[in-house]
Amino acid sequence: MDSTTGLRSLRDFIRFGASQFRAAGLSFGHGTDNAFDEAAWLVLHTLHLPLDLPESWWDARLSEVERTRVVAVLRERVATRKPAAYLTREAWFAGLPFYVDERVLVPRSPLAELIAQGFEPWVDPETVTRALDLCTGGGCIGIAMALALPQARVDLADVSTDALAVAGINIERHRVGEQVRALQSDVFDGLEPGDRYDLMVSNPPYVDAEDMAGLPDEYRHEPVLGLAAGGDGLDTVRRILAGAREHLTEDGVLIVEVGNSQAAVEAAFPELPLIWLEFEAGGHGVFLVHARDLPGA
Predict the structure, then answer these.
(1) Residue 89 and residue 79: Cα distance in Å, rounded?
(2) What 3-state class would DSSP assign to 157?
(3) How far apart are CA 230 and CA 209, in angstroms?
(4) Which in 56, 229, 242, 283 has the greatest CB count within 10 A?
């Protein structure tokens, strides 16, 4: 007998999906952190229903066509180990929906909390006229920054033309083309010498060789270019710290996410007065440094 025989309601299929995911030993971390939320996301998205659907709807019965579609996507999640965001072609960041596919990482940065706060108290949001999202990927961080700082012009920079194509889709989706531009740049190499920013934010590749070797299958669907950063995870971070001063204003601020490579950063740059930020919603490994404290100041 088919294991889906007898499933009728939204609640049934979400429960079924969660059970299948747990039995298959799937990994999470691309928008959800558990099997139930992942199943709910996939079921609701497949049925074109909002993620905040009232629970009173959960006993609604699915049509035969809907049941077939929902079972197919749940089984695809198990068979392929692709993160749900790649199956739905959508991820949420800073309360905003973004298009994603395998050309970019799925957004999951604690920087969303800083953006929601307008980067206060570290930055006066009213004084930011130019901002840079370095290693932008699909543009989620930079576009969220632009919407939070409407007076600022925001550049999205990435070495990957594939990633910039996705960023372009998101620029159009959020209608910020007059405020945001996408630039191909290998760290700072594609910027003009006169490009200076009041705020520079980066979520660069920072996964070290040991962690890369142990990544779950879900993470192996993401572009290696956006993850791997050498033996100690600092290949890109070193370039950012060496060149950021040249592209920051006198009172500019640099914010970089390095995740589990925090200890490596602290060991490699003991002379830099890095401020390690704390997040109420969770997350770690994000430092802030003032332009005046960077090399070349």
Answers:
(1) 17
(2) strand
(3) 6
(4) 229
Specify the CATH number for 91-293; select among 1.10.443.10, 3.40.30.10, 3.40.50.150, 3.30.70.1650.
Answer: 3.40.50.150
d(CA 196, CA 249): 6
Q: Which helix (H) or strand (E) holds 74?
A: helix 64-80
Largest CA distance in the chain: 71
Residues of the chain with CATH 3.40.50.150: 91-293
Q: Which two tokens stand for residue 24?
A: 């298959």
Residue with tokens 């799937």: 26
Domain 10-82 sits in CATH at: 1.10.8
Query: Tokens 């010498």 correspond to what residue?
Result: 193
Name 93's bridge partners: 96
Gap between the Cα atoms of 119 and 112, Å rounded: 10
153: three-class secondary structure by DSSP: strand
Name the token pair of 39. 């199943």
Contact 180, 156 (CB under 8 A): yes
| 22-42 pLDDT, tens digit each | 999 999 999 899 999 999 999
Q: Which residue type, as a one-letter code, is found at position 241? A: L
pTM, 2 dp: 0.93
Residue holding tokens 């139930």? 36
Q: Residue 43 pLDDT more than 80? A: yes
The two structure tokens encoding residue 40: 């709910």
List, for residues 57-67, the tens digit of each pLDDT value: 999 999 999 99
